[in-house]
Design brief:
2 domains, two-stranded antiparallel sheet, 309 residues, 57% helix, disordered C terminus, mainly alpha
């Protein structure tokens, strides 16, 4: 028996909420990855780990918020909790592998393709593993070409996100990149859901408990923990001024003021072994005065030169 599938039981509410969660996870991950590029030592791995966990958790939360609107009219839908949380672990680990490759190897073409492919396959694996955790009196079948298209979208979206993480600078630019990432991830999800068809084992009489009942009571408790993590990660990002505003002025490379005629240049402070009689000239370097006729230098002990006129 062919089941009647509805992916929008709550109308536009679940797609919009899922899109916003994907954007939140993407924005946090992109900013954390950008922040990691400023560290060469211990904090680099921490920011990359936070970024990969944010992206993986955001994608997983987006998927199951969208699944809140998924119902089969003739049968109840439940979820296997171990498999559901295993899909979260897969998303975080595989996204982390891709981000660490790019974070430590740089944004070369090879690393972007490698990291993007691993990350995209992780996103697709998370989706279909989460779908494998569904429990209903029937079986789920997929259209092969649509599944392949969803995997391609996931890989392209992941590669683009990694490129943006290391190439796009500035808060507004990263915000725009996260919106594009949210569109790509949501597009991948609903493309994959378009491949789904449900075949029920036998006709069953609809009842109040089993006739396309909403799955919110089953999924919402599992979404609480990941949603709280994303909120805490957002707090960490907002309270780090370098993530929002960039480098402070005192960390930027100093710019030497141009020389202006008539204004004396700063006095040169001689270093060890340099003569003390420098005169300022453009460029900040001094030139020694010529020794007048009959003059001579004397070098006292201690190595410091003085002039005897």
């Amino acid at each position: 028996m062919q089941g009647t599938v509805d992916g929008f039981s709550y109308g536009i509410v679940t797609p919009v909420a899922a899109f916003l969660m994907a954007c939140l996870g993407g924005a946090l991950g992109l900013r954390c990855t950008t922040r990691s590029l400023r560290h060469r030592e211990s904090f680099k791995a921490g920011w990359l780990a936070l970024g990969s966990t944010s992206i993986g958790t955001g994608i997983w939360t987006m998927h199951f918020i969208a699944m809140l609107g998924f119902t089969v009219e003739q049968a109840p839908v439940d979820y296997d909790r171990p498999i559901t949380f295993a899909s979260l672990a897969v998303a975080i680990v595989m996204v982390g592998i891709g981000i660490f490759i790019v974070g430590y190897r740089g944004a070369t073409a090879l690393t972007l393709v490698t990291g993007g492919t691993i990350t995209g396959l992780g996103v697709a694996t998370m989706h279909y593993l989460g779908m494998a955790g569904m429990r209903l009196p029937g079986r789920i079948e997929y259209d092969t070409l649509t599944v392949a298209l969803s995997v391609v979208i996931a890989v392209v979206a992941a590669t683009t996100a990694l490129w943006a993480a290391v190439s796009v600078h500035g808060f507004l630019a990263s915000l725009g990149a996260s919106l594009v990432m949210g569109v790509a991830v949501s597009g991948m999800h609903y493309t994959a859901m378009a491949a789904v068809s449900v075949h029920l084992h036998a006709p069953s009489a609809p009842s109040a408990a089993a006739a396309g009942a909403p799955t919110g009571s089953m999924l919402l408790p599992m979404l609480i923990g990941p949603a709280v993590f994303l909120i805490l990660a957002a707090v960490v990002v907002m309270f780090d001024p370098l993530l929002v505003m960039g480098d402070p002025d005192w960390q930027r490379s100093p710019v030497r003021a141009p020389y202006r005629p008539g204004i004396p240049a700063p006095r040169h402070v001689p270093g060890y072994g340099e003569p003390a009689n420098w005169t300022a000239r453009p460029g900040g370097r001094g030139s020694r005065r010529p020794i007048p006729r009959g003059g001579h230098r004397s070098v006292p002990r201690g190595g410091h030169r003085s002039q005897d006129w």
